[in-house]
User: Fold these one by one.
Assistant:
Number 1:
Amino acid sequence: MNNSIRYHFSDFTFENYRRLLRIARQKYVFCSFDDITVDNNILIWRHDVDYSMHAALNFAKIENEEGISSTYFVYLHSELYNLLESEITQLVNEILSLDHKLGIHFNCDFYNINNEEELEYYLNFEKYLLEHIFKHSIKVFSFHNPTPVILEFNKLRYAGLINTYGEFFQKEMTYCSDSNGYWRHRRLEDVLSKGNDNKLQVLTHPEWWHFQILSPKQRIYRCIDGRAKNNKDWYDKSLKEDGRENIDWDI
């Protein structure tokens, strides 16, 4: 079977994302992690932004147009964006201006965390930093690439923040994710269309979605190439604006 069919490449376009949201709205009540308003047909939709804040803004605009608010979990240790860069900061602020919420995408391995005390210490550190950068209250966090050991940190809250992998969300809610650019367990369209999951958490990563139909490798390579191009353009522009020579081999 062709991989484009086997892995549903055509699912991962922004146009189809809008369609999936509309299907979900017919079946479910959208809630946030800190505001579950009903007992049945609950849907919490979150985004772990691993690599592309530009793609995250595309999600945010579509959701805003569809009357939906979701939570964007930003990652201080991303290899492809820096939350302290002015452009990325502006993108996050634009996402927030569209009535969305901010969460922490947290990497235990970065700090070599071995116990709950260390987890709370570094969560408090990242919470303090992000709240001061974006002037936005943060109430929730998600683990980055959680291992079975990390998932043992399953209390509902740490450092006053709701844990998306807490026992309640693991045991009381079902789950559907697009990790690595494909449906690893269940196809989201099938899950939403059937509407059999009484309490559902959906995780989507913006970098795995695009305007065109692409393979997962193509989608992530576009993020990498786009990051490189932006850096080159910034360097060329900064030299020109400062009136400095941009010297290469040719005269």
Note: The radius of gyration is 19 Å.
Number 2:
Amino acid sequence: MGKTDKKPWEEAYRDMVYWKWPGSSVPDWSIPSAVGFMERALKLEKGAKVLDLGCALGYHSIELARRGYDVTGLELSEAFLEVARQRVEEAGVAVNLVHGDMVHLTFAQEFDAVVLWGNTFGLFTDEGNFETLRGIARALKKGGLALIDMQNYTKLPDKLEKGWEFSREDKNLLFLTKGTKDVLRARFGFTVIAIDLASGKRHEMPFSWRLYLLPELKRLVADGGLNLLGIYGDDPKVVDWKSRRRSEPLPYSVEGFTGNAAKRILLCQA
């Protein structure tokens, strides 16, 4: 496949006005729970080399390092990396933070596991998504595992069809969110518009995912050099969210992957 197009979403991860807003922060309890699920699904052994792709502000990389893993976090946004470096230093853990593009990975059989978390997969063009999978396959040691988190095709378009728009305001900012969809290209998402109430400055942050039908996705994964071992989901009719304690791993399950699941979490092997 050819060279990827210019990334239209890159500005969304460069402008920190949204990411530093308290309303966008990740709850502290959710990080250990997410990493607990990663440990279980990937069957991680202490000291395992883990690549956290699109590590953002370093939340999961730091928690993985706390648990005794050799972690490399790769992130394209320099603004994110600046925050992540500060957070790693404050946490007192060792994380190898690397500036790089997951569409053009150069690692070769270095990692026991790769994590691509937070709905990052699908942001790119079809070529970029394919190259990301190829890069993951190359980065893994033989038999290594990858966990790839993404939106479920049947759920996000349904939300947008029902009018997924909202506004939020604090003393400094007005946030407006409007759903976007391009049915012909199978891209769905939303645009966050932040308006500085003092200056009137407008910040626009577009998020759009290419959502694949399951047969398309299976073929893409196989062509990228990975074996699909299973798909986890979060269907609330199947997955028990109410009785679990916050400290426990997220209860995603293979049985929970249904048309009603918001998540599709792929477990793949090199």
Note: Residues 1-6 have pLDDT under 50 and may be disordered.
Number 3:
Amino acid sequence: MLPVLDSDSTNIDYPEAYQKGYILFCDLEILVNENVLIPRIETEKIVELVENYINENSKRLSNEINILDIGTGSGCIAIALAKIIKHAKITAIDISEKALEVAKTNAKKHNVENKIEFVQNDLLSEYNKKHDIIVSNLPYIPTDYIQNLNDSVKKFEPILALDGGKEGFELYRKLFKQIIYNDINPKFIIIEFDDTHSEIALIEGKKYFPNHHVSIKKDKYGYDRFLSISVK
């Protein structure tokens, strides 16, 4: 079990998931503390979209599917994919060493530590390994909007996992540039963004991947939430 951090759990705003030390994600008990963002139920859709893509494109994929999870946090996406997709080999990247400690603990808890390689890195800087699929749920809250978030979020969840820069899309622009520059050449990319960013997500997706299928996918509540980029 993860260590309990020294926060005032009697505070009415203190997140329940941190109080309990875990949250359910894709029916898996994911351990969390203040070093990682609390996984949201909307994000489970990423796992579903990847599974659907693999099922629909099995002929163009190799027997061993290489998946890259960028900004893994608690490791929830990588671990869920490792449990569901038996022939997947997953690399999970995060800039935070403390977040990776949580992710590694979760991987061991769910017996998938041998299927996931954890790497501490700033997105894809100096990283050029090939991957079939890239998934990412990077920070996407505009810097100036963070002060407007609920106290349960802005007081306790890591700012590093929330702040997406001036517009909230800066890290994704950086990521897209690195994917192209480092010639990682994935067949499928799926990212999560703020539900007000569908227009900018489409513009940037088509800008960096003009020869790909680029589309918006909705979350379980009907909000624009994911950018899908796939080879034609």
Note: The two ends are 44 Å apart (CA to CA).
Number 4:
Amino acid sequence: MNRLVPTAVAFALAASASPAVAQATDPAVSTVNTLHGGLLNIMRARGTHASRAQSIGPVVDRTFDLPLMTRLAVGPSWTTIPAPQQAALVRAFRALTVSQYAKNFDAFGGERFVFGGIEARGADKLVKTTLQSGSTRESLNYRLRNSGGQWKIVDVYYRNAISQLATRRADFARVLKTGGAPALVAHLNRLAARAG
């Protein structure tokens, strides 16, 4: 009987902890943790904008579905754009994403990312996190989609509500309307250069 008590207690503890443990070990959470680890690394390294961009670029490639994000941000007109221009848009979108992360995460001051849970959103998953810096807390939530067996980020929400994709879609639509895909590539490249 005494041997069963520790076993029963251990089972009860495991059962009560399992949802949180399962969430924390979810492959979508792992993707977000990879991004956060890369961001903390470039903050600690400081360096130049170029060196931070070089370091975070491969992390962005591993954690974001950049082709899908570009297509979603462009919207329905994507299917009318020739393949070479689509590829140029994806490259410019990547350059902007990398440059903005290199700009915004430039120095370490004790920041940390705190996991806040995971929710199903249809076939997607929403990973909730908070960026803490001293007494400041900023909500950063990530929408991920399974892409070729790997969970990748397809949108980022700031302050729980501001969708990066929705913001970019509005900006992209204006440029596409006046100058088409070549104008949008030039616009994205200018924004990336300005962030640097």
Note: Residues 4-195 form a domain with the Nuclear Transport Factor 2; Chain: A, fold (CATH 3.10.450.710).
